[in-house]
Structures are given as structure tokens and as C-alpha cells.
Amino acid sequence: MTQPKEANSKFAREAWIRALERTASIDRLGATLPVLMDRLAHEFDALPALVSTEATLSYRELAIHCNHYARWGLAQGLKAGDTVCLMMSNCAEYMAIWLGLSRIGVVVALINNNLAGDALAHSINIVAPQSVIVGSDVASRLIAVRASLRRELPCRVYGDSTQDLAPLSPELARFSGDELRDSECAPPPIDATALYIYTSGSTGLPKAAKVSHYRVMQWSHWFAGLMDTQPSDRMFNCLPLYHSVGGVVATGATLVGGGAVVIRARFSASDFWRDVRDERCTLFQYIGELCRYLVNAPHQEIETDHKLRIACGNGLRPEVWEAFQNRFKIPRILEYYASTEGNFSLYNCEGHPGAIGKIPSFLAHRLPVALLRFDVDSGEPRRNGDGFCERCLPNEVGEAVGLIPGSGKELAGRFEGYADADASARKVLRNVFKQGDSWYRTGDLMRRDERGFYYFVDRVGETYRWKGENVSTAEVLTALTASRGVRDGVVYGVSVPGADGRAGTAALVVDAEFDVASFHADVALRLPAYARPVFLRLLQSIESTGTFKPRKQDLVQAGFDPARIEDPLYFDDPRTQAYVPLDAALFAAILAGTVRI
């Protein structure tokens, strides 16, 4: 299904032009997305907007629901700049709530509905909300942490009521669903914050990133242009609505084009193709891990019986790309690079397998991006004798940064930051190429080839040094998952007493076809000696975040100590040149230095 180069180039040019035209219309529209919803209701009326298992909302019904929530918020005394936390599972009503409340200037914090305990209390406390709306299926977790919240908060439950929380639905019935008049509440300015969307990294507590109404409109219209969304389109969206990809990109881009968003609560490899076929979906929003799950799933007769024309997303591994596209006959893959808080994005409109994007020459002045030479040991970009950073040469790995406009008045390219000012400050790199300039730090290591295509290499902090060489966990994982019987994995470095750097460790999920001796031989062929995993840990499964990022903190902390690890554990023993079981005696010998690595 790989497209000819000429067709890819033509699609890329047209996609870029459409995206530019759609985003140029934002100024002409003079509206935020919540205001635009009323206009879309007039245009598309009874056409389906949101389709979920529990309800379908037409454009008219969605606008009515939004206006119910806007008037409810006003009746609660909420005003522009106040914050409401929203913690619910994926459903059609989810969007109506945040669109309605953001229409009156309220900032809606989209809480990960998988959180509990300290992480949940932290996520609520850092945005200092005036109220919380929670789904009945996760309400018990909110109730459990109420004593840990910094203030007594009014809480409403959506769905079945509980004895502890007041139900929301009966209150909504009192309010009109007619279009909200400016005399009732003027719309917030487009540069005001609309949402807090939390970064859900594999370690540490979440940070609440600010997302303005402008960025919501920009993301929606830009991707509407790239995908050329039309009323005939139906987007399959099984990604979390609390995240920017599932909650804004997939939904907003479809809605501004008049299409329908088919929402599912979660991803299911076994149900995926039946859902896509039965719902007549033409678009699919992915995160790369979903594509790998599908490729690893057993064959289904219906897996090519679909109407998909584009799969759009990010994080599609190079080794999965062509298998995914060819096996399932996906006409076009639109891979891109972006982050919730980032001030720039990259787009692979050409469908070049493995690349995360390319900046066309005619847009280089609008997307000032640089790759900086990076020092893995210090975790910082290198500085020359004058104290400035240096750009990478072609195919040299460095940290990607985006220029922050100096005037502070430009909405495009600005870094909107987090609720935590200190966290915001840490993401800005100053005096990069000249005194006084400021650049947003992505924390991502990339390389750029001679043709201008960018490739993701690793996260800053994920790359480690061993035997005097920099080792990319992402590149090692790509090599390991190509081995027979390896289903999934995480790669990281662990400290070994007396050794310089960190020793590579691979925690792998394997099937019955996996053979440790054959794996060792594969690794020797695929990777240089310094990049081969010293330690091997076999897992039943890998715990992931809600956006499918592996949680590796506990794995790293356990190191290679068999007393802390119940899983099968192996050591690449240089004496036998093979992976051998790592027991307490061998562990002690490694620590004592009698067995060298």
C-alpha cells in the first residue's frame, strides 16, 4: 500500500496548502471553538457529531448540551479564569462539558481518569480549582482523596448519583440550551487559557500544561486541513479524551469539517477492525503503540474490510510502519511530531516510513526549529567558547528546540507553559545562538537527514553512556523487538558499582517462540557490543500510562538485584558469551568485581 513518490509529494503539497488555508481562517472566524460550535450547529444541524456506545449527539444536540453547561456554570458563580476539574471516562458528554464551561471563560482541567491516591490529589491541587465534575464510574477515587485536597470543593457526579456527591443532571434541566448571548457572558479572548492538559510522562507526577483557545483552534483547523476532513468523514477515536491527541486533535479536526467522531472508552485489538468496519470510519487517530498491538494481534478476516483513507498520529516505530500499512491496507499514514505544551510541530505528509516530519522550505521562516549538539553526561546542550549552542550537522543527534517569539505578542510559536511557574522556567533555554534569545526545550533527541526529514532518537535522560558510547534506548528497543518471540519491551540503563556509565537492561515481554540463546545471537548481529543489553528481564506485561507510555521507574529502581525481582533474570556473561540466569551468587560476584561486565 506504500504510495509512489510522486503521489506522496503531491499529497504533501496539497496537505500543507489546506492546513495553511484552514488556520488562516481562524482570524476571519473571530471565534473560539465553543463559540464556533453554535455556528457548526446551524450548518450541520442533525448530522452526527459525537457517536459513543451510550449516546449519539448531532451537531444541534451537542450545541444545546454545551449551552446547558455554560448556563449551569454561570449559575454556580463561575467566572472567567476560574478552574473546574473534569474527571470522566470517554463519552459523548465529555466534550459538551468542557466546551460549555470554556465558553464562559472557565479553564477546564482534564484529569486522567485512571489516577488515584496521591497522583490524583496532586493533579487537582496544582490547578487550584473552584469545582470538580466526576464520572460515576470513577467517583470513588475522588471521594477517597477529598481529605487530601487543599480546599473544600463543590463536586458534582455525572451519571448514577452517590450518597457523597450531588448529581449533575437534575441541575442541568433548569437551563436553556439556546445559543448563549454576549449579554449573558462575553466569550473569552482567544489568547485566554481554555484547558489544562496534563503531561503523563513515564516517571514523576503530572504537570498541568496550559492550552489557550487559540491553540485549540489552531490544532483543530491545522489537522482538518492536513486530513481534508469533510462531512462524509467518520473518525475512530479510542484515545483518552483527557489528552491533547484524543481530546482536541481527533475531535476538533473532525468537527470543524462537519464529520462525526466515533468515541470508544478504550482501545481493544480484538474489537478494533469490527468497530472500524461497522461504524464506517474513514479516519483513525493513533498512538504508535496501538499500531504495534494490531500488528502483533492474530489475523482477522475483516481486518482489511474497512473504508479508512488516513491513519493519523504519532510515535509509529519504523519497524512497525510498513507492516501496519501493508497488512491492513491503509492508503495513507500521516505521522507527526508534537507535544501538548510544545511551541512547534513536525509533519510527515510525504508518508516516508520512520520519519516524524519535514519542514518545507517555504515554511522554514515560520517554523524556526533547531537541533543542538548535546552532552549526554550533563543532560544539557553543549556550549562553545563564546557560551552559545551549536547546531547539529546532518544525521548528528541533538536536542530539538523551537524559537519563542521575542515580542510576546505573537500567538503562534509562543510557549504557554504550565500551571507551575518553576516547571515552565525549566523548559526555556536562553542565550542559545545570541544574547537574549529564548528557545523551548522539547527534551527530545532527534536527527535530521540530508533531505530534511527528522527522526526521533530518544528522550533526554533516556539515552545513557556505556563503554564510552552514547546508547539510545529507543534504537536498542527497535533492534530487540525485531527478534523472534519478542512482543514488547523497555530498555534502560542501570548503575553497576565500579563501572563507568550505566549498563543496558532490557525488560521484555516474550511469547513461546522466544529462545534466549537465539536472542543472544540476534542481538550480536543487530547491535554493537556497547549497545547490547547486559541484563535481561522477562515480564508478563509492561504497565503503561493512559497514553501507552511504559512506566519504567520501578524497573529502573529494581536494577538487576534478583532479591527484588521475581521475573526470570539473565546476565550476558562474557566468560560464556551467552545469557545465563542471574542468581544471588552471580549478583554478589558482579558487585564484588570478580565477574566483570
Helix fraction, binned, reads 25-40%
Number of separate helices: 17
Quaternary structure: single chain
Molecular shape:
globular
Distance between the termini: 45 Å
The main sheet comes to:
8 strands, mixed
Q: What portion of residues belong to β-strands? A: 15-25%
Please compute the radius of gyration using only Cα atoms.
Answer: 25 Å
The counted number of beta strands is 29
Look at the helices and sheets and give the structural class: alpha/beta
Q: Can you tell me the number of structural domains?
A: 3
Low-confidence sequence ranges: none
What are its keywords?
597 residues, GMP Synthetase, Chain A, domain 3, 3 domains, 8-stranded mixed β-sheet, 17 helices, 30% helix, globular
